[in-house]
Amino acid sequence: MAEVATEIAKKVEAKAETPVTVAPTKTVEAARAEEAETKVTVAPPKPVEATNKSAEETSSLVGKLETEVEIKASAGQFHHMFTGRPHHVSKASPGNIQGCDLHEGEWGKPGSIIFWNYVHDGEAKVAKERIEAVEPEKNLITFRVIDGDLMKEYKSFLLTIQVTPKHGGTGSIVHWHLEYEKISEEVAHPETLLQFCVEVSKEIDEHLLADE
Fold this sequence. Notes:
seven-stranded antiparallel β-sheet; 41% helix; globular; START-like_dom_sf; Bet_v_I/MLP; Bet v I/Major latex protein domain-containing protein; MLP-like_ligand-binding
């Protein structure tokens, strides 16, 4: 009887040990690991391609134009026309500038808003500009166009005027710098506006010399 009991006990122990060898926890963990690996390996390239294309298109729409104009007036005199009395520019260049009004702030102060009436390419136009920066020691002023006709063709338009004394002689050099972003490839670069700036510079110079 003892031998029979011992044999039965061994069989019971064998049956009890069988479930223990099954490791469902490992199977679940492996499944989760496989699922996690699948998610990590999925890396669609389309967003990257779209980003690169957008950057290329943006760079082709952004541009800069510069020119220099020699004048006989001093750098300080010319700079003061755009900081202290831009409303007098219409007197100096009546064929190009019809008027200039202060909408907010003070003349020649950063943050101030100025409204221009001008004629470009034979058409009467307007421009609302904010003074972005003024550096008297460099005779520099920067305007940002925030509204008006230019905003129909450009997303952004920045105009900087800096005047430096001419080395080795009297007079000065007016440096015009236009920085912009077109709304599309169909829009032309503003070369004619740069020529407009040259004409205004020459007429302001004549006006300043006449006032001396």
